[in-house]
Structure formats: C-alpha cells, structure tokens
Amino acid sequence: MILSISGLSHGFAGRPVLRGFALDLARGEHMLLLGPSGSGKTTLINAVAGLLTPDEGVVAIEGEVINQLGAAERDRLRRRRIGIIFQSLRLVSALSVRDNLRLAQRLSGGGVDEAAIAALLDQVGIGHRADAKPRALSQGEAQRAAIARALVGKPALLIADEPTSALDDANAERVARLLLETADQNGSTLLVATHDARLKAFIPRSRTLAPALSEAA
Ligand SMILES: Nc1ncnc2c1ncn2[C@@H]1O[C@H](COP(=O)(O)OP(=O)(O)OP(=O)(O)O)[C@@H](O)[C@H]1O
C-alpha cells in the first residue's frame, strides 16, 4: 500500500475531529476526500504528511509509520515520498519557478535533474515561465508551478488541498485532468481533499468526512 491509515482519531481541546478514520490506497489508485469546511480534511492531510501527530491511530506511507517517527525522520519521509499542493501554493517567492523545482528535487534526496525539471514544466504547460518569479505568474500558472514542484521528487503520494474550489467549471475540469494526468505519468497516487463535489466526475472513488460535532452536540 502507498498509504494505509487505520484507527486515526484526533481532536482539538477535547473536541473530536477525526474518529477511527481508516483508508488504504494502492499504487496508482486515486481518491477524493470530500467534506464540508471544518470536517477535518486539513487535519487528515497534516497527519498523513507527518505535520501533525494524531492522538491515536496509524498512518503508514509505503509501510513506514510516519506518526511513530521522530521529527527528522518524518521530514525525510515526507520529502522523499509525498508531494503536497497546498491551497496557498507556498512557492518560494525569492526563487524562479525553475529554482523552486530544483530546491524541491534536492530536498527529495535526489540530485538536480535539469531535463526532468524542463519536461515537467512543459508537461504542466509553463515551460516558457521557468525563469519567472512566482509573483509574476498568473494564479493559474502559479498553481501549475505548484503541481510541478510537488511532482518533481517523483512522490509515491501526491496530495492536493482544495485545488479547484475557487475555479469556474472549465478551469476546475482543466486542473482535475492535469492532476490526474501528471499523477499517472509520474506513477503517483493522488489524494485530493476538497469540498468541491464537481471533482467526483473526474475522481469517482471518494470518501466523505462528516462535519465535526458542533459545540452543543
Ligand atoms: N490547531 C487547531 N486548534 C484548534 N482547533 C483546530 C485546529 N486545527 C483545526 N481545528 C478545528 O478542527 C476542525 C477541523 O479543521 P480542519 O482544518 O481539519 O477542517 P477542514 O475540513 O480542512 O476545513 P476547511 O475546508 O475549512 O479548511 C475545525 O473545527 C477546526 O476549527
């Protein structure tokens, strides 16, 4: 399994957000994690990426239990095995698009492969913007750069957080297809966390997170 989650529970200030969540994803399988705002999608992604230690449960990335590793080992596992497209993109503003990809490639543990970087930028359609700084990019170009950066380390698992919720139908479809196509071509398993039910048309396998219990419940 690329990702195996079992018995995952987490809460904040005694308020449960995730309760006994389980999920298995094999290589090349893609999945939609659907849920309204506040249902715990970001909490789950952070637990998968080792950015949060859950109260209970097991999160294994290719058999390695990330929530039982120390901080340095967690970082190493994340950089080598997981690519994340954050909602806020988080490109390094001082670096060109190409240098953002070079940095990600170095952090993922491999050497810099200029040909692979060029091929990936062409694949997402921004080869001509390789030397631009992130602030000079359109929102769509910046998102494509973030997708390329997430993939440049050839991650087993590609995670996208709300990649389409701000987009109109045509652009949401374009981004969904780009994510699926690039994940497939790079051999990555894709996990998309979103409240955008339009994506069901492109990623039929889905899990729905229930909204967190209200204060009164
Ligand atoms: N660090 C934190 N401290 C306290 N409560 C938190 C913290 N992080 C998240 N929560 C709460 O946990 C619940 C789930 O939050 P989470 O961000 O995982 O949801 P989400 O589904 O990603 O929502 P959104 O789509 O709005 O980002 C929310 O009620 C949120 O207020």
TrEMBL record:
Any GO MF annotation of the entry: ATP binding
SUPFAM superfamilies registered for this protein in UniProt: P-loop containing nucleoside triphosphate hydrolases
UniProt xrefs under SMART domains: AAA (SM00382)
Pfam families in UniProt: ABC_tran
Any coiled-coil regions, as ranges: none
Keyword NAD: no
The keyword Nucleotide-binding appears for this protein: yes
Keyword list, A-Z: ATP-binding, Nucleotide-binding
Residue intervals of the ABC transporter domain: 3-215
Alphabetical list of InterPro entries matching this protein: AAA+_ATPase (IPR003593), ABC_transporter-like_ATP-bd (IPR003439), ABC_transporter-like_CS (IPR017871), ABC_transpr_LolD-like (IPR015854), P-loop_NTPase (IPR027417)
Gene3D superfamilies linked: P-loop containing nucleotide triphosphate hydrolases
Protein name: ABC transport system ATP-binding protein
Organism of this sequence: Sphingobium lignivorans
Lineage, opening ranks: Bacteria, Pseudomonadati, Pseudomonadota, Alphaproteobacteria, Sphingomonadales
